[in-house]
Design brief:
303 residues; Multidrug efflux transporter AcrB transmembrane fold; 4-stranded antiparallel beta sheet; two-stranded parallel sheet; disordered C terminus
């Protein structure tokens, strides 16, 4: 079934400047948001501290929970609704062992709500050194994925293609981080996994278009690179829409019905997938054209 005919002739290269300006505006907004929030909203994986998940039989009162924790020295604790009658308590304290901390939490909750009114379902403790190490490894994982893709695309195609692909991937990661910051989503190891997934999805889509550009360049020697890129993107447009639509359908179902545990993870994937579709069409290929104008590859073709 062909939803978008390959005979379409949208001028994607002509929209390059507008697309770049839009992307720059969103990324600048993201940088401003990060500055405003004092950096990313790091989860316990990176910031260190303790996380306690408590399930109540009735809807809990956050103020009452906070008052119960205050005598324990948890005045700065963050209390978040996690699900029906369920909360997450985050505290910077990480010195106590999990069993000791659980006992203290249970003592405070029993005094405030009664012994049968709650259940401590999960407790995690991450020291500051472990958090700093995880932060470093997460950054390295993303950077090494970029380097690996740069080498692979550079060997398979040319450096200009590799440059376009990497700039598009950096764009996707920055756009995703922007929306995570704007909506104050927690940045933890799940988000790192989402970013690496986005990188893999986006470069796969980009390589499909690069393959078509290379194929059309060999067939149509007299066409300019502008025309080759527009032709290639139009020819793969149906494939891009169909594959992206199916991925987005699954992510939307997970986002609305997957529960609180994977909510932020799915949100990051949704934003990153949309950014990946956008960058594949409007960022990666035009970057190839821009690099060709600055440093011609020596082909007998008009840029």
């Amino acid at each position: 079934m062909e939803i978008i005919k390959t005979s379409t002739n949208f001028n994607f290269v002509g929209w390059m400047k507008s697309a770049v300006m839009l992307s720059v505006a969103i990324i600048v907004l993201g940088i401003a948001s990060l500055i405003w929030h004092g950096g990313p909203n790091y989860g316990i994986d990176f910031a260190g501290g303790s996380l306690i998940q408590i399930k109540f039989k009735a809807e809990p009162n956050a103020d009452k929970i906070r008052a119960a924790l205050k005598p324990m020295g948890f005045e700065g604790s963050i209390i978040q609704q996690f699900g029906p009658n369920e909360v997450i308590v985050r505290t910077a304290e990480s010195g106590a062992d999990p069993k000791g901390l659980t006992a203290r939490i249970e003592e405070a909750m029993t005094a405030a709500f009664g012994k049968e009114a709650y259940e401590v379902r999960r407790i995690e403790v991450v020291g500051p050194k472990v958090g700093a190490d995880l932060t470093r490894k997460a950054i390295l994982a993303i950077v090494f994925s970029w380097i690996g893709i740069l080498i692979y695309v550079g060997v398979r195609f040319e450096f200009r293609y590799a440059l376009g692909g990497i700039i598009a991937l950096v764009h996707d990661v920055m756009i995703t981080i922007t929306f995570l910051s704007l909506f104050d989503k927690e940045f933890d190891l799940n988000i790192v996994a989402a970013l690496l997934t986005i990188i893999g999805y986006s470069i796969n889509d980009t390589i499909v278009i690069f393959d078509r550009i290379r194929e059309n360049a060999r067939k149509n020697i007299k066409m300019s690179l502008n025309e080759i890129i527009n032709l290639s993107v139009n020819q793969t447009l149906s494939r891009t829409i169909l594959t992206s639509f199916t991925v987005l359908m699954v992510l939307l179902v997970l986002f609305f019905f997957g529960g609180a545990v994977i909510h932020d993870f799915t949100f990051a994937l949704l934003v990153g997938t949309v950014a990946g579709i956008y960058s594949t069409v409007f960022i990666a290929s035009p970057i190839v054209l821009l690099f060709e104008r600055i440093h011609p590859a020596g082909l007998k073709r008009k840029a």
